[in-house]
Design a protein that fits this description.
Elements (H helix, E strand, L loop, with lengths): L7 H13 L7 H4 L8 E5 L5 H6 L5 E6 L2 H14 L4 E5 L10 E7 L3 H4 L4 H7 L1 E10 L9 H7 L11 H10 L5 E8 L2 E3 L2 H11 L7 H11 L1 E3 L2 E4 L2 E9 L2
Parallel strand pairs: 1-2, 1-4, 2-3, 4-5
Antiparallel strand pairs: 5-10, 6-10, 7-9, 8-9
């Protein structure tokens, strides 16, 4: 399992995917009713701010915490474009955060930041005054975009990802947390301009894997669809929304 790092290319891909996909809006019907206009929200592992931008209009203030300057710069630009002023950016790792408690703590697809520290879940709960929210992949296998099919074809094990529920569940149990769990499926694919970019995108998803060029191109050609004026790699994902009161 390789540690995820934001790059300019990954940021470009992710922002394009957000414009096409159902994430994060598909979770809002479950989360929005739990929020108050006076709430402060700590977004742990905020990245480019998909969730910070969604929640800012619904609450008093959002703190977007992420160690990546590149990702936070992308968020800052989107805040400028949208005229959003109630998001505070903090460039640091969750392990180094010693700021004040917020009404709500959120960690979306960044739970490896919580599980890396034996006390990470307890610290996360302690920083929430009334509500903790975690969104995490249900499986630790990188099966999005049909990757399971590709690796089976190559007779290779499917790569693992950190921070999935299989990793998070033992940490929750150690912390004495029994969250409410909702299972949510949604489409979150990737627009690309051509097959070459699609192959580059797949390689970036599984860095370090030796994928033969011909097999990868056959896989991509089989899965690409047309969406408007773009090519599109579809991906149906399943994630879990965990919530608990601290």
């Amino acid at each position: 399992m390789s540690s995820f790092q934001w790059t300019q290319e990954r940021i470009k891909w992710y922002l394009e995917a957000l414009r096409f996909g159902e994430y994060p809006g598909v979770f809002l019907p479950y989360i929005a009713p739990l929020l108050l206009p006076t709430d402060t929200v700590l977004d742990v592992g905020a990245g480019t701010g998909a969730w910070s931008l969604q929640l800012a209009p619904l609450v008093s203030r959002v703190t977007a915490l992420d160690p990546s300057e590149l990702a936070l710069n992308a968020l800052k630009e989107e805040m400028r474009v949208r005229g959003i002023v109630n998001i505070e950016l903090m460039e640091m790792k969750w392990a180094d955060f010693d700021g004040p408690a917020h009404d709500v703590c959120l960690c979306a697809h960044a739970a490896s930041a919580l599980t890396a520290d034996p006390d990470g879940i307890a610290r996360f709960s302690a920083k929430a005054k009334r509500l903790c929210l975690v969104i995490t992949a249900e499986s630790d296998e990188k099966n999005m975009f049909g990757l399971g099919e590709l690796f089976k074809m190559l007779d290779m094990p499917v790569p693992k990802r950190g921070g999935a529920y299989t990793e998070l569940a033992p940490a929750l149990k150690r912390a004495g947390v029994s969250p409410d769990i909702k299972r949510v499926s949604y489409e979150f694919g990737q627009p690309v301009k051509d097959e070459t970019e699609a192959c580059a995108f797949i390689r970036a998803l599984v860095p370090g894997e030796n994928l033969p060029d011909d097999a990868l191109r056959r896989f991509v050609t089989r899965h690409l669809t047309v969406s408007g004026s773009s090519l599109y790699l579809p991906s149906t994902n399943t994630a879990l929304l965990l919530s608990w009161t601290p």
